[in-house]
Design brief:
Number of strands: 11
CATH class of the largest domain: Mainly Beta
Radius of gyration: 21 Å
CATH topology of the largest domain: Pnp Oxidase, Chain A
Region (Disordered): 1-30
Number of domains: 2
Protein name: Pyridoxamine 5'-phosphate oxidase
CATH architecture of the largest domain: Roll
Order of helices and strands: HEEEEHEEHEEHHHEEEH
Domain CREG-like beta-barrel: 29-173
Domain DUF2470: 184-256
Oligomer: single chain
Pfam family, one: DUF2470
Length: 271
């Protein structure tokens, strides 16, 4: 079980409260959120320890080997010497966001121990780094550069204000990135532009807000939709889950269409 010590995903205060419980508010676990964020970029802040035990933060690029970050750093760099002297390290990865408040976005910290890739991993680790950082082909084989794999032992996910959770390294390793993530922005734009009435119907039927006037989709993933609902009582946030977890982005269109069809008969019926 993940350790939840300060708020669960989705438990940020909602005003006004729902009039009835959402039908299905399933959402990604912290480990899945972390795998998705890690897979979406190739840059992070690396925290290492100096020989004197002082913290040292630096900007690095990374690839992923079965979800584990692969670093390629020079022994001439401060962080390269730090990793050689103390394997304890963590990566801070920030998800892309258009929000002007940087603390409102999602980010993760992956902590653990670095190690040189094993003989059987060496080629895969090198390929993973080059796939993520193609320009590294100019230096990856220099004698002062080394590949390191961060064996993740602890994960912290923050989804914005009031949304945070932890996961173990084993949970992180067993999870997978959300296949919907690469298409999420396009899907959001389409849903809000062309299916506003359907989103409001979903909020009324499944989101716990039968008094919804309008709804805007603010997030989509393999488990469902995040909605911002406008009611006569004020603005609130809710979750409408798909009947089953999506396995591919190709299922997204039919899953949302099925939700819309199922919601329509329930228009205005209340809880």
């Amino acid at each position: 079980m993940a350790i939840r010590d300060h708020g669960d995903p989705g438990d940020a205060p909602s005003a006004p409260p729902p009039l009835c419980p959402p039908t299905n508010d399933a959402r990604p676990a912290a480990a899945e959120q972390a795998r998705t964020i890690a897979a979406a970029t190739n840059a992070a802040t690396l925290a290492t320890l100096t020989a004197d035990g002082d913290p040292w933060a630096s900007f690095v690029a990374y690839g992923l080997l079965d979800g584990m970050p692969v670093l390629c750093v020079s022994s001439l760099a401060e962080h390269g010497r730090n990793l050689a002297g103390d394997p304890r390290a963590s990566l801070s990865i920030v998800a892309a966001s258009g929000d002007t408040d940087p603390l409102a976005g999602s980010r993760i910290t992956l902590a653990g121990l670095v190690a040189k890739p094993t003989a059987s991993e060496r080629d895969e680790a090198r390929a993973a780094y080059l796939d993520a950082v193609p320009a590294a082909r100019y230096y990856v084989d220099f004698s002062d550069f080394s590949l390191w794999v961060l064996r993740v032992q602890r994960v912290r996910w923050v989804g914005g204000y009031g949304r945070m959770d932890s996961a173990t390294g084993d949970q992180y390793a067993a999870a997978s990135p959300d296949p919907i993530a690469p298409a999420a922005a396009r899907a959001l734009a389409h849903l809000n532009a062309d299916h506003a009435d359907a989103l409001a119907a979903m909020a009324r039927a499944f989101g716990g807000y039968p008094d919804t006037d309008t709804a805007i989709c603010t997030g989509v993933d393999r488990y469902g939709l995040d909605l911002r609902v406008h009611t006569p009582r004020g603005v609130a946030y809710t979750r409408v889950g798909f009947p089953a977890r999506l396995q591919s982005v190709g299922q997204l269109r039919s899953a949302t269409a099925d939700l819309a069809r199922a919601a329509e008969p329930a228009r205005g019926t209340g809880c």
